[in-house]
């Protein structure tokens, strides 16, 4: 099998808080004005990505991994995760605030849901004036204080509220209470998991006049009640992979591309590129494929030498 850079059909999700920026800014084929998420690369059950380009068009990511685990995932990733794709990649458009929520760690998620936990990072692609996020507690807290404020509808008073701008990065370990605020477009990288415990939803009603389910009891054991530092500072040296996040679940680099750079890989892990600004092309095996802002490409681990060329800001993600 001759592998090549793989793109996938976006899996579009309507959300009560979604909008239209995935179309206007990222050119996704949305048909609803409440589209909140574009899942770019997923093997979540019921939402498995389908190849959109080349000879393998129409095949699912799961099929490819089952047939070519070392070539797609990489030798080290295959040993560690078997034939599971361990990450989930998304773009989000928050027209309104998302619910205040938390994700369980691996141990709790395995015990309760037979799933991975959900460590994640956000790269802010676009921010309206005064846009903000909620990340963790203002000061160290505890379950009693949290429950009291939740009951009194004063939870926001003890949570940390952070103003954000484009290119900001936030790394959220499991247990961090958080919410993406209104007016943000975000690139999200996370463990493969769709487990979210919703703590508070601003008493919103859905299209049928119902409030959304809360998971207060499930969240109690999952929450980290200590103050956390989530913002990541990083360098922006041109034509280099600048490390942004390096954690056990994934490494994310920021590449300000201006011209051409040669890339060599070991074959131990797949690589994913998310184009967050501008456009670039990948030169491989005497062919060139173009990518623009809002596109995501999976480089199979067997592709160990290629060239990136263009003027773009790129997130480079792999497992080390």
TrEMBL record:
Which residues does the annotation say bind Zn(2+)?
A: 103, 120, 178
InterPro entries named in the record: Carb_Metab_Reg_Kinase/Isom, Man6P_isomerase_Firm_short, MPI_cupin_dom, PMI_typeI_cat, RmlC-like_jellyroll, RmlC_Cupin_sf
Q: Which residues form the signal peptide?
A: none
Q: Which SUPFAM superfamilies does the record associate with it?
A: RmlC-like cupins (SSF51182)
Where do the Phosphomannose isomerase type I catalytic domain residues begin and end? 8-115
Task: State a single Pfam family of this protein.
Answer: MPI_cupin_dom
Starting at the broadest rank, the lineage of the source organism is:
Bacteria, Pseudomonadati, Bacteroidota, Flavobacteriia, Flavobacteriales
Which residues does the UniProt record annotate as the domain Mannose-6-phosphate isomerase cupin? 243-318
Isomerase among keywords: yes
Q: Can you name the source organism?
A: Flavobacterium psychrolimnae
- What is the protein named? Phosphohexomutase
Q: Give the protein's cofactors.
A: Zn(2+)
Q: Tell me which Gene Ontology terms the entry assigns under biological process.
A: carbohydrate metabolic process
């Amino acid at each position: 099998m001759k592998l090549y850079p793989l793109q996938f059909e976006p899996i579009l999700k309507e959300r009560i808080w979604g909008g239209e920026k995935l179309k206007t800014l990222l050119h996704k084929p949305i048909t609803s004005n409440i589209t909140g998420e574009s899942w770019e690369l997923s093997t979540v059950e019921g939402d498995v990505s389908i190849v959109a380009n080349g000879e393998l068009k129409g095949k699912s990511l799961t099929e490819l991994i089952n047939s070519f685990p070392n070539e797609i995932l990489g030798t080290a990733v295959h040993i560690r995760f078997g034939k599971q794709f361990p990450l989930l990649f998304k773009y989000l458009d928050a027209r309104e605030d998302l619910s205040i929520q938390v994700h369980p760690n691996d141990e709790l998620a395995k015990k309760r849901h037979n799933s991975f936990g959900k460590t994640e990072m956000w790269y802010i692609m676009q921010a309206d004036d005064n846009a903000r996020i909620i990340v963790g507690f203002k000061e160290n807290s505890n379950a009693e204080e949290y429950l009291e404020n939740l009951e009194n509808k004063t939870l926001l008073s003890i949570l940390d509220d952070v103003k954000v701008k484009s290119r900001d990065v936030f790394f959220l370990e499991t247990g961090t209470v958080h919410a993406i605020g209104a007016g943000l477009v975000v690139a999200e990288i996370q463990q493969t998991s769709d487990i979210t415990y919703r703590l508070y939803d601003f008493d919103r009603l859905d299209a049928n006049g119902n409030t959304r389910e809360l998971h207060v009891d499930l969240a109690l054991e999952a929450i980290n009640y200590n103050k956390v530092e989530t913002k990541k500072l990083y360098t922006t040296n041109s034509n280099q992979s600048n490390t942004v996040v390096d954690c056990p679940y994934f490494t994310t680099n920021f590449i300000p591309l201006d011209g051409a750079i040669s890339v060599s890989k070991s074959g131990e892990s797949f690589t994913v590129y998310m184009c967050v600004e501008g456009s670039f092309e990948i030169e491989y095996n005497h062919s060139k494929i173009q990518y623009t802002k809002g596109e995501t490409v999976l480089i199979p681990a067997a592709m160990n030498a290629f060239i990136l060329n263009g003027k773009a800001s790129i997130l480079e993600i792999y497992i080390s």
